[in-house]
Design brief:
Layout lengths: L1 E5 L5 H8 L3 E6 L9 E3 L2 H7 L5 E4 L11 H6 L3 H16 L5 E6 L4 H4 L8 E3 L12 E6 L11 H5 L3 H4 L11 H6 L3 H11 L1
Parallel strand pairs: 1-2, 1-4, 2-3, 4-5
Antiparallel strand pairs: 5-7, 6-7
Helix pairs in contact: 1-9
């Protein structure tokens, strides 16, 4: 199966599908963090010039659409234009000519929801896939069944201190903080490859 992982520089999802024997590519404006099949550039152009993908899993930027950042829209007027650009890109991915599509993003604020073409299909959490953390992630699915939990560790997670089970939210400021927060959890990547591959 030909699998495209859009807006991924980490190689996590790409490599999970590659491990299952698929022809998996990642694509991002950034170079890949791990050696592998990666196209550095615009993903919409890459899809146009390389048709015939069976599955696309996309991780479009969420900075201007996530509910956790909605307050900044009212503090910085320039963010409204960036929100519109982000929603346009999300819709472009959603409407790509690919047989099966999964787009992931955090829970969106109402302004973003009004700009995108459909509502999410399901919400997943890292603790459903073996990670003792919580970080609600929405999936917009086309031609794919909902992702089934593989290793529910919620009970163990709830015994941890609040900051530890929300460690991505509480990461200390650093130049790589945004990269760490946007990398897909390995358990989720493995579940995608096992169930959708």
């Amino acid at each position: 199966m030909r699998v495209l992982v859009a807006c991924e520089y980490s190689g996590t999802v790409r490599d999970a599908f590659k491990a299952k024997g698929h022809d998996a590519w990642s694509c991002d404006l950034l170079p890949t963090d791990k050696p592998g099949q990666h196209y550095q550039g615009d993903v919409i152009e890459f899809i146009k010039n390389n048709p015939g993908w069976d599955l696309m899993i996309a991780h479009p930027p969420c900075t201007y659409m996530t509910n956790s950042g909605v307050c900044w829209l009212h503090k910085d007027p320039t963010r409204w234009d960036r929100l519109a650009e982000a929603a346009t890109f999300f819709n472009q991915l959603h409407n790509c000519k690919v047989g099966k599509i999964c787009i992931e993003n955090p829970i969106m604020h109402k302004y973003a929801k009004n700009l995108i073409s459909s509502d999410y299909s399901q919400i997943i959490q890292p603790w459903m896939f073996g990670h003792t953390e919580q970080k609600a992630t929405c999936l917009w699915l086309q031609g794919l069944p909902p992702l089934k939990p593989t290793n529910n560790v919620k009970e163990a997670m709830m015994k941890l201190p609040h900051r530890e089970r929300n460690k991505m939210h509480y990461l200390a400021p650093s130049k790589d903080r945004w990269k760490l927060r946007s990398t897909t959890y390995q358990g989720i990547a493995d579940a995608m490859a096992a169930q959708w591959g």
